[in-house]
Design brief:
15 strands; alpha/beta; Rossmann fold; 7-stranded mixed sheet; about 40% helix; homodimer; about 450 residues
């Protein structure tokens, strides 16, 4: 097994998409609206305007097929976009598969993942709305560093509530944010009522994404100069990520090929949507040359799409957000501590969930040992060391390639390599030393969390 | 100060250089040859063939202007080459300079620096010579990870002797090498006579680059299946790096511009040579549109070119290698522990040294506090967090841009951004917290080391 032989399909700056693609315009039936937990009705836009700028609230509910990307956003995108599409010829040879494997690599962004694709427009729209300050939460740090970079792009101050256990364990991600000028606070903190409440109950709390969200939202809601920013799940976030798939579509023209299957990892859903939706749109509108399949890959330790149910639930752990109709394991579900921190979310985006419910998107779940095995095979054949989240897509693509080999079919596989693993090498050490383990997830644990679903499901 | 507004000048795969440029062909006078320390005569090629493959020994002494890049090497180069050239418009605005600042970014390689440009051909030529195994040394880990990646590209086994103190302090660089399948050993080790000798004298030795070189060379010299690989200093290493400057030259055609000054950091010299030599060649052959200046930037804590002397000295600390005529602080000189580990070399490449001695290349030295200040200003304006080594070039470029501002001159500045700082964020923390310090380097320390120069200087 060795590296190289890949072919890179290159676009120029002029090929950066100038508009985002909104899949809502082409879905057979639109996703059910979010609901206010108290009233059971869609939330008042005013509630959203307390923490989001008008442009993003508008995009959140838009059913326009295309939304123009503002020039100042394109200006920043040009720092790393278009991103490369590679044919993984050495991986194909290592697998002895007749399949063609392509991957779209988003790790070339300054923050090292796809997250800046939405962080940049979110910062821009906030600046345009006269906002001078953002808050957000981050777990492993990918989203926090993307927003720190984006905030700096538009001269916004930013405070990142970083889950305390990650704050201690991932100093490099924290330092990356600080180098870009962000203020990083370990959560729970004494800066907010929700943080202080948590610390009162448990002074040694390691924190959680749910608590960090509560702190960031509380601060944004209570300060006029400050808005909140979210890195996945919501419609406008998925919208911004569609630059990935639109570029990949053009690159397949250069390659003279078209995917039979599109594979991407799925936590909150924005990475999957970004790659898949532009191809899915072609299929939904009858413009695709093939009956392409779409596969969302999730961790077996947090199997939202494969073992959850499709129901209204809260977006956060504490039950502060509007209810969203989505695949969920229950907002009280706490996934085991796998290395792919970005995929540890109890729910999934309403858009991806609806497409799964309608049978247009498939879902698969894999344990982390198999995922890291695929990641190392990829690193040793293609040279790039992937983030643990992205490695889920590699595992999915490898399984598709092995299936093509069994079937003797020269299928074309596209997967999304959403980021590099430069800050995740401790996880590789665990794998290489044989210490990495899979988690058994008892059905009872899921059943218990699902019992706490809110009673407002009226779909 | 904010990010973006840069313009990327893009080449396609077809623009990757197909031959390396050998500056020896165009130098006014060639560099003096290396000398065997015992005989005072140029070393027998057979000595070199004990640890290097024939193609590299030939390139080391070649005076051909161009040497073809083998197709299997180009095949791997295509994973990340051509690398981007950016116009740093936001940095220009932050400095309020009339200068145009461009940078060539080599951090997009899998190993994150320019080092794979030579690691890949070195691995290839060894494989072609029937060698199945490489040894090398690494300090901070940039070279070791580049060679680990390259060895994997051509199915070579590799053992990296990593300076013990870095082995402990830089676990991520070590894990990167292991992920690519390299064996990484803390040096001094018990695997070699020189390692055991060092441990006998000092069981707690933190190691040094000199000791690690001795171990790697000893093992390569004593095993028929194993060769040694060096990451800088030698002529063939500088040769391979000229893909950087050749691409930049084409990108300046796209930009409709040409550098008045080329700035690059300089430790062993390969990064500087890679960017500067193709432009210098144009000037030496009368084909340059401008009287371009060339500036090599080094750390004030290891001021080889600015405070050393031009004399024959050993390439390693222990005095095992042939003598090379170069700027040197004395092979016994131990530089203070600055963060730019890749620039802590007592000497400099014979080619760069000769050009400095002939007045064709200038040298500047800066302290690390000023260097990190420039690095953070760059990260906050252009988005990329640079390696400490690369930040020396940023500091040099910033000084040139400020000089242009004082002179009211719209000069064009090109600098080399040789790598990213993803594994160097602890150094940024030191700087951001105010704990980073400059080192005073007493003249007596240099004088003392220079006293130990070998007595064979006959130039």
């Amino acid at each position: 097994m060795s590296i190289g032989g890949a072919t890179r399909f290159e676009l120029s700056e002029a090929d950066i998409p100038t508009r985002w693609y909104n899949v809502v315009a082409d879905m057979p039936s639109p996703p059910p609206p979010p609901l206010h937990p108290a009233t059971g009705r869609p939330p008042d836009p005013q509630d959203l305007l307390a923490i989001f700028p008008p442009d993003l609230v508008e995009q959140e509910v838009s059913s326009e097929r295309h939304i123009a990307i503002p020039e100042p956003v394109l200006d920043i995108y040009r720092l790393w976009r278009p991103t490369p599409l590679y044919r993984a010829r050495r991986l194909e040879r290592a697998l002895e598969t007749p399949a063609h494997i392509y991957y779209k690599y988003e790790g070339v962004s300054p923050a090292g993942s796809h997250k800046p694709n939405t962080a940049v427009p979110q910062a821009y729209y906030n600046r345009r709305a006269g906002i001078g300050r953002l808050t957000t939460e981050t777990g492993a740090g990918q989203w926090g560093s993307a927003l720190a970079f984006a905030a700096r792009s538009f001269d916004l101050d930013i405070r990142v509530y970083m889950v305390r256990v990650s704050y201690g364990q991932k100093p490099y991600r924290r330092l990356m944010m600080e180098t870009w000028g962000a203020e990083v606070v370990a959560s729970p903190s004494t800066l907010t009522a929700s943080g202080r409440g948590t610390l009162d109950r448990d002074p040694d709390s390691p924190g959680s994404l749910g608590i960090a969200i509560s702190e960031a939202v509380e601060e944004a809601a209570s300060r006029k100069d400050t808005n909140y920013s979210l890195g996945s799940v919501l419609n406008h976030v998925l919208l911004h990520q569609t630059v990935i798939g639109q570029e990949a579509r053009k690159q397949f023209d250069l390659a003279g090929d078209y995917p039979d299957v599109v594979v991407a990892s799925c936590g909150g859903g924005s990475n999957f949507a970004g790659l898949a939706f532009p191809f899915l749109g072609e299929r939904l509108t009858g413009n695709a040359p093939k009956e392409t399949r779409f596969v969302a890959v999730e961790p077996a330790a947090c199997p939202t799409l494969t073992r959850g149910i499709y129901a209204y639930d809260f977006g956060d752990a504490s039950g502060f957000t509007p209810l969203m109709k989505m695949f969920t394991l229950g907002h009280g579900f706490v996934p085991p501590g796998i290395h792919a921190g970005g995929l540890r979310y109890h729910g999934d985006s309403p858009l991806v969930s609806k497409l799964v419910a309608d049978g247009l998107v498939e879902a698969q779940a894999y344990g982390q040992v198999g995922v890291f095995s695929a990641a190392v095979q990829f690193a040793r054949s293609e040279g790039i060391i992937p983030a643990p989240e992205s490695a889920h897509a590699i595992k999915g693509a490898v399984e598709e390639a092995l299936a093509a080999k069994r079937d003797g079919a020269a299928r074309t596989i596209l997967f999304g390599l959403s980021g590099h693993g430069h800050f995740d090498l401790a996880a590789y050490e665990q794998y290489l030393s044989g210490a990495l383990q899979d988690f058994e997830l008892p059905t009872a644990a899921i059943d218990q969390a699902l019992k706490e679903l809110p009673a407002v499901d009226r779909a």
